[in-house]
Amino acid sequence: MLNHGRRRLERKKSGYGSFPKEIFHKNAKINKKSTPLLECTECGKKQYAKSYRVKRLELQEV
Ligand SMILES: [Zn+2]
User: Fold this and answer.
1) What is the pLDDT along the chain (62 residues), one digit of tens a residue?
2) Dist. CA 62 → ligand 1 center (Å)
3) What are φ and ψ of residue 44, in 5° steps?
4) Ligand 1 mean position, distance from CA 7 (Å)
5) How far is the CA of 52 from the centre of ligand 1 (A)?
6) Cα of 38 to ligand 1 centre, how many Å?
7) How many angstroms separate the alpha carbon of residue 12 from the centre of ligand 1?
8) Which of 10, 21, 26, 53 could be stapled to 31 by a disulfide with Cβ–Cβ 3.0 to 4.6 Å?
9) What is the pTM of this model?
10) Ligand 1 center to 49 CA (angstroms)
11) Which among 11, 59, 18 is positioned nearest to 35, based on CA atoms?
């Protein structure tokens, strides 16, 4: 006969494979940082735009 604390621990451990609580498996960051390389059409100078965490990146001609 197990004592009460041991019984409670055994019941707790039964759920998630010897671990009392569910293990959190989600990534901390969902969206990747995107850094578009912008090139000047006149002199050909390249420059990286400021990077942001976005789901979808869309470039538009101004
Ligand atoms: Zn230029």
Assistant:
1) 678 888 887 777 776 666 667 777 777 888 888 888 889 999 999 999 888 888 887 878 77
2) 15
3) 75, 15
4) 74
5) 24
6) 10
7) 65
8) 53
9) 0.41
10) 14
11) 59
